Amino acid sequence: MNDPTLLQYFEFEFVQRALISALVVGLCAPAVGVFLVQKRLALIGDGLGHIALTGVAIGFLTGTAPLWTTLAVTVAASIVMELLRSHSKTSGDVALAMMFYGGIAGGVYLTGIASDKGVANLQQYLFGSLLTASWNEVWTIVAGGAVVAALMLVLRPWLTAICADEQYARVSGLPVASLNLLLLITTAVTVSVSMRAVGLLLVSALLVIPVVTVQQFTRSFKATMFSAMGAGFLIAGAGVIASAAKDVPPGSTIVLLGVAAFVATAAVAAVVGRVRRTRRGHLPPEGEPLEVELPASSA
Amino acid sequence: MPVLNVHGATVSYGGRAVVRGVDLAVAPGEAVALMGANGSGKSTLIKAVAGLVPLASGAIELFDTPQKRFRQWRRIGYVPQRTGAASGVPSTAAEVVSQGRLAHRLLGMPARRADRTAVTRSLAEVGLQHHAHCAVDTLSGGQQQRVLIARALATDPELLIMDEPTVGVDAETQAALAAVVAARVDAGCAVLLVTHELGPLTDRLDRAVVLADGRVVHDGEPPRPVGEHADPDHQHAHPHPSPDPHPGPDGAAPRITFGTNKGGHGADEFWSGK
Fold it and tell me: Would you say residue B273 lies in a domain?
């Protein structure tokens, strides 16, 4: 009966911390995700999220902060994955499958060894626990997010080229291998840094959902990237506020909001598409000239 | 000094030699077609030239530099063999074409005026200046192919490598593209073109190299269409199924002669796989 109003929530420091970290993750994750979607590697974030479990468990075991062990493990995994993809016959999805299985198994196995640290502890990394983050963790997220977003924005044309048409990029003499590796390492950093916000199992959602939501309306890569960042920012902010009001885990709230936004916009896009088809922005492709003579009608 | 020099190139896929000991040279400003049936190794050879597949033996020199040490890839325009320029995220035609300028830019530096003019000019050359800001996945297959050719032109190439650029492109567009390529050839750009059909693009050729089963079987004058196919007004389309599925020598089936071929190894024998 004395429920605080929305504005009063912002007086709580834990809500401020949660909001800042979620907004940063919401802004930066789609900046990486847009390249992953372009490369048709949308699930790589999820794969690295599974691997990150092993990293968290190593953190428990050694008593170091899980953020740093996770970062080390996911970066190492992304390097191995890229080497496998480029130097062996292993296809992208087979490497991905190995990450899913190996990551989960490693995480459960190692937490089993460090069982005195408790399973509830692992849960907060699986599903996110923004509301218990400390200011130190918040500043790590802000710094990591700034580096990731700056890299992606500056290298956008080059990363687009290697993601859209890797063979062409190779023939133009671009450093394809290094750029691929950079993209994967950036994904690993994003996953490790944002596990506090949305949780490891849901982190892929913030990489992908804002991108696929806005690309139903955009025509250019640049517009897709910027509006996806905006959409991620809004979804993450709304998710934190909603979760604080309802006292539910923020990760799941953010992702559910994102899925709802996607479904709603997909419906709108279908309607808009129907309107646009009758009023196109550019001339329709001219038809191929008829190369046969139509027989005169016999009537 | 040729822009491209291939000595005894052999490429194998999993132990099976697809290209066997091929020699090929392209002089500056020369337009050469690489022809042959499906599976004759022409696409593989061109991928080896572009550095996309490794050589099992032999050597490739680009602009007098061994391919392994060659770094001036901006001097080469490449049109890959594919259908469509669209990919996972929407991109405009101008964005795709500007990929052709990345080799001219330092990593992380913004585009300069020269880059932007090159993109606008190449789009205009292929007749897509009004489609620069259209998403490529809304363009027709022929228009997407023109976008890919514009991307190769944007790099201001001295050697243009095209792998079947006119597959799925209608006759009118083929003629327009042929004019674009001819203009570049006249301006001194060398062209290496993979194709398995004669068309407007092959009219401007200086030479044709024909591969069969991974070996060069002809290197010289380009094949010319004969008979009614040589008529510029002839439209290579058959309005109705042929009443005779195996036409005789005077039928409407295309006959190709390779001018300098000796020993009676006619094109008919070649195309029939002998």
Answer: no
